[in-house]
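Listing S7. Sequence submitted for prediction.
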Amino acid sequence: MKNHPLSRIALTLLFTTLGSAFVLAADLDTPALAAATGGASHSLFLKMNGTVFATGFNNNGQLGDGTLVDEEAPVPTLSGVAAIASGFDHNLYLKNDGSAWASGSNQGGQLGDGTKINRPTPVPVMTGVRAIVAGPNHSLFLKTDNSVWAAGQNSSGQLGDGSTTDQATPVKIMDDVRSVAAGIYHTLFLKNDGTVWSTGAATYGQLGDGPSFARATPKQVMAGVRAIAAGSSHSFFLKEDGTLWGCGYNAYGQLGDGSRDNRGLPVQLMNDVRTLVAGEFHTLFLKNDSTAWSAGYDLDGQLGDGASGDRPDPFQVMTGVRAVYAGKSHSLFLKTDGSLWGCGNNARHQLGIDPADRFPALITQLVPAQEAAWQLQNFGADLENPAIAAWSADPDHDGLSNLLERAFHLSPLTADNRPMTAGGATGTPLFQVNGSLPQIQYLRLKAATTGLGYTPETSADLITWTATPGTPAVTAIDDQWELVTLQDSAATGQAKRFTRLHITAP
């Protein structure tokens, strides 16, 4: 999602003998979580403002932060990003301008930069890209012309270029492709006509046309498909009629068909599935009712059921889920309230939390729980509707975005944009002149309870803004709110002075 520009909302305009003006400004670059992805022992988190955060193991520079130092909690790494994908030890980033970048392990040429040198700092790979997919050790780039290109490890023909030679520079594989899914040694291609083509290892029947020798050129295996997914050596096909089918390696029950039998040909699985993702030996299913289910290997708690035994029958893990993501042996759940939860292997802090749990735990560093709770409380069933629930929305049409309603203790569903009374407990900031000095008084959520940022700023020309000088007087109102009063101590004698309050979302 592209960044939103700074939105300046004129609240009150006052002119004094100094010619001072007061403006309220809200930063609507909402850094709520947009997506996540997991590798072998690391995770990436993409916020809606295009910033990527990373946590976990970093021995090959897979975190993309320019170092080889492990991180125990998410750290920012790259900006301007629209999509992310992770292999075992490498990452792909799709930037807003359509360029693809990569970081981490490059032993098989999976970064696609023409070398086999590991990259702790993301490097550019190609332009004109609309989607990225990372297998454990190979990468695929779907371009805007619907052609798909591949790079990386190719020992079983998983790139689909007709060879078993690793490729350090992306090579064109096929045209007219809608989406791609990648396992460790196999790849699935979904074409725009609904046909699925597959290439690579076929030992367990993961290509969808029976156990056989590996092949290096894609072959059609199914029709009438609208989505695909791949685990290490198992595959899924979500058909246009809504049925889900799976095949391949199933020793841990990762297909979710109630057995541990490998399936050389696709078998029909559970109903009402909206989407799904697969780790190495486990699978997460997101149903149409927003419930998340899991099946397969559970040694590290990646199924999120609190137990330690494998599950060949899918088990309901959570409700109110918007999206699911799987690392090699850990799982991530993005809920409809904007919060992110994780479970499974956390030996390298790839969940970004400590300690790990066999039940999903809230990854609080990314989405402040108080703000997620406020949005859920106010918008309920409309939480998924950006026209109502987005920070930038104004559902009560009073000229104040939801971000400003939250910042100043107002209801987002009741029109009210009046300034607060002096010392009041609700309302927009009160701008006034105290003696000869401009003064702003505003409500502020205490830092311990929110991720909102409040920054008073001043300017002489409405172009260059700096933090308002002076020492604020802060008075506690209750356990969540406080009253801030700040005079612009540098305004004396200036012919013109502007003041604004800059609010940033969590």
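Caption to Listing S7: primary sequence and predicted structure tokens for the chain studied. Residues 1-31 have pLDDT under 50 and may be disordered. Residues 441 and 485 are 4 Å apart (CA to CA).
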